[in-house]
Design goal:
Length: 405
């Protein structure tokens, strides 16, 4: 953990980009499977050493299944029994940042997608926008004319890594995102397949393992658990039922993995924390003096909020925020996140400093911070992520190697 970051936020958990993060997992996969060097350190210890000797390598990305969630939901599960190590996510601990790092091999500092909502300046005469980079929609301004294709060309700047592996690459995603500009960009020339149910996802993957004789890498993305935990929290019965279904799917692959000479990997992009409604701060409603100092709506994540301020108000904003909401968040100058290496190594995206604003409100414990624009309805999320608790930052490295007869 970088010492500056731990000083800014005592008791927090930050990414370990030196050898124990998702970024390092991708570097190891690329090295082992005949892909290019990503410029990032590989996993240390070298957990994946020799994995490329197997005919098939599968990576299942279970969105939201952090280490703590795995232990809580499935202490007797196949997934838990095959957990090899604990890794960290990236910062922020969220899908836009973490999966983009997995798909490109580059850190959030380089790819620049640092939150569900992203400040984006087109460098033209058009006003700056707050964009959701995964669905490629504009949150603000409401009358934006930017199209998904225009946003894609502006925001998705790092080339896809997986198609550069030295073997056939297959990407399996839900049908409702498989053909999105984000998915198409990061799949590149890889073979793409979509599925409409969890059962179909595992059936398609099993069929590939049993029929394909060429060496292959198979990436299966499962976003369903994340969606449920956002809506119901981490401990609901619906979440437990869905986890059991995912674990059953993993077990079904394990049953054919030996014959198919298949190494099964699974991990998550981030973990989760339950966020009770009484610990949710609506900045625009509850603290109008603070909100009036903003030049743009909030961006980033509800647990890692980037604030773009009106000129000359930074010191006043920091002082007032520490007084009014310092119990709920660390109030950090955004440039100190850059100095501390929060977004990882590598060349810095030219707009990174601009995108993270002047101040970051980094949620403590189970607090969350939001605003609601005139065209939006207030949205309460019982489960969230993006912050720097262990529950959000720690993700499992799950590995089952094929057994020899």
């Amino acid at each position: 953990m970088p010492s500056l970051l731990s000083t800014l936020s005592p008791g927090s958990h930050w990414p370990d980009y030196h050898g124990s993060s998702l970024l390092n997992l991708t570097a190891s996969l690329s090295s082992e499977l005949g892909g290019p060097q990503t410029g990032m350190p590989e996993l240390c210890p070298p957990w994946l050493a020799g994995i490329g000797r197997h005919r098939h390598v599968v990576l299942i990305l279970i969105d939201g299944l952090g280490t703590q969630q795995l232990a809580g939901l499935g202490p007797h599960s196949q997934l838990y029994q095959h957990q090899l190590a604990t890794l960290t996510s990236v910062f922020p601990a969220t899908t836009a940042a973490a999966i983009t790092s997995l798909m490109t091999g580059q850190s959030p500092a380089s790819h620049g997608l640092v939150g569900w909502h992203l400040y984006s300046d087109s460098s033209s005469n058009a006003p700056a926008e707050i964009v959701a980079p995964l669905p490629l929609t504009v949150r603000h301004p409401a009358d934006s004319t930017s199209t998904p294709q225009q946003l894609s060309e502006r925001l998705l700047v790092c080339p896809p890594l997986l198609p550069q592996f030295g073997r056939r690459v297959q990407i399996l995603q839900p049908h409702y995102i498989a053909d999105s500009p984000y998915s198409l960009h990061h799949a590149g020339s890889a073979h793409r397949r979509s599925y409409r149910s969890m059962d179909e996802a595992f059936t398609l993957l099993a069929s590939s393992l049993q029929t394909e004789t060429r060496p292959g890498f198979h990436y299966l993305y499962l976003p369903q658990l994340d969606s449920l935990m956002h809506r119901h929290g981490t401990q609901s019965q619906a979440v437990r039922t869905l986890f059991a279904q995912i674990d059953q799917g993993f077990a079904s692959l394990a049953a054919i993995a030996d014959q198919a000479d298949c190494a099964l990997l699974a991990t998550a992009d981030h973990g989760f924390v339950d966020t009770p409604v009484e610990r949710q701060i609506s900045l625009d409603e509850a603290f109008p003096a603070l909100y009036a100092m903003l030049a743009q709506p909030l961006s980033g994540e509800r647990r890692a909020v980037f604030c773009h301020l009106r000129p000359g108000l930074q010191e006043r904003f920091i002082s007032l925020a520490q007084q009014q909401i310092g119990h709920a968040c660390w109030v950090i100058e955004s440039k100190r996140l850059l100095t501390g290496g929060a977004f990882g190594p590598g060349p810095q995206h030219p707009q990174l400093a601009q995108r993270i604003g002047e101040v970051c409100l980094l949620a403590k414990e189970d607090w969350s911070i939001r605003d609601t624009l005139p065209q939006e309805k207030p949205l309460y999320l019982p489960g969230q992520h993006g912050g720097v608790t262990a529950a959000e930052m720690s993700v499992p490295l799950i590995l089952r190697l094929p057994r020899k007869d």
